[in-house]
Design goal:
By secondary structure, the protein is mainly beta. It is built from 3 helices and 9 strands. Helix content is 9%, strand content 26%.
Amino acid sequence: MPGIARTDAPGSLPVPDPKLRFDPRSLELTEFSRDFFMQDTVTVAREVIGAWFARTHQGKWYGAKIVETEAYLGAADAAAHSWRGRRTPRVEPMYLDGGHLYVFLVYGMHSCANIVTRPAGIAEAVLLRAAEGPEGDKRLLSGPGKLCAALGITVAATGIDLLSCGDFRLFHGPPEKRTIGVSKRIGVKYAGDAAEWPLRFFDRNSASVSGPGLRAVG
């Protein structure tokens, strides 16, 4: 399924924070396969903890390690933008094959980046809630809006395919031990029973996690 047309060219995206400059090769990072993103959304949300979300700018890499995510489960999930099969121009990227970006605005000003999962037409995604850079301020990317601001991501990036060898990628490194916490999602009280579903995942050892870690279960 082709990518969604964007209103702005990728070259018009803001410049990423220089503290996020890194070299994927030095960390022995490799790209995920399409099959990874076709898995169930909860699996992807857990497994991308520790992965690197990255982009290029003027031929150089900038990125951060993902430490907090939330899973959104499509038509049956009242917290998802695609609940009950909602299909609007904003939501349309969620209906692409797994491995595409879905970026939306909250309060008309903060961008939030999501990784689409499952085969085309199912409309599920993983919200990237927080990440930590290779050095510097541990709170720089502590929250979905902060993450996008630091990496210079706006809605101009929605619909981009992470596997197209373009400017945005998701990398994984050698296996490492992770201690993953689980809790209900943040800021979805409007979603009824779905607000209580344990679909938030986070690195218990990271100071960059945006939400409450001590009260989490799992």
